[in-house]
Amino acid sequence: MLHGQRLDRMLVAMVPEFSRSYLQQLLEDGAVTRSGLDHIKSSMKVKAGETWTIELRATPQSQAFKPEAMHIKIVYEDACLRIIDKPAGLVVHPAPGNWSGTLMNGLLGLDNALMALPRAGIIHRLDKDTSGLMVVARTRQCMDALVHQIAAREVKRQYLAITDQVWTGKTQKSVDLPIGRDPSNRLRMAVVDLFKNSGKLALTHFRVLDQNAHGTLVRCILETGRTHQIRVHMASLGLPLVGDHLYGGQRPSEQMPRQALHAESLSFVHPTTGLTLNFRSEMPMDFRNLLDSWALSYNANT
User: Fold this and answer.
1) Against a cut of 0.90, is the pTM above it?
2) How distant, in Å, are the alpha carbons of 201, 216, 222, 273, 296 from that of 132?
3) How far apart are CA 205 and CA 159, in angstroms?
4) Which three-class secondary structure state does DSSP give residue 294?
5) Which tens digits make up the pLDDT trace of 68-92?
6) Strands 189-191 and 74-77
7) What is the CATH superfamily name and number for domain 64-152?
8) Catalytic residues
9) Which residues contact 92 (CB under 8 A, 6 or more apart)?
């Protein structure tokens, strides 16, 4: 049945108790062998009658789900959930190059019971260099309810963004363009044609808060939550974020050492109490310094 199949697919079929990513890691680490064969590739075709050996090892990925002591700024918590104010520079979830020191590790260190939840209760992510508010579940019931709210677009998320470009046209715009993996650069996301490339619908509302010859301060409201959504949609307008070199912005500088994006406010209905919760994160110092140096004003109530 598996004759002529790729080696990685054969492993998934024959060792179903382990994840595809874990088996792929073992392949890359040389833990999958066959007598008389020195160079093993995941794309190799297997043949009937061959004997393969797999050595189960602890990979960095398999050891990533471990508690770590970490200071986490918690702005609200109850038995159901926590609201986290994430600083820029903190990776949310373990990934290649960041198998430790992530927010997930810190949450497990704070509450070992989160081991029982997928992704330690993390409902949605912020990029490493994006600061601001996140909601994290503490129970499976709460997690399922919040995931449903996000899918139903019932969780309200607003961001602040700064571009060094001058906004033209109407000061309020909506960008309704699908986002998927950039076909020419797999490290990026891009606006894609769904007839030609895979992707998902994405909708962002933008409102100019202030602007001058230096640049523009924008409030961004997410209707959907695609990877890099605001960064991609801003770039599609010809307004890449300050510090966001990946999407055409100026390189990070001493004044703004990361992309200028901050998750400012979060609002949703509490899954248990039914009350509407509203949270706001104070603007980070790097944002304030950049706005001051460019003489841009900010009013949280506008």
Assistant:
1) no
2) 24, 20, 14, 24, 20
3) 10
4) coil
5) 999 999 999 999 999 999 999 999 9
6) unpaired
7) Pseudouridine synthase (3.30.2350.10)
8) 127
9) 86, 102, 103, 104, 122, 125, 126, 128, 134
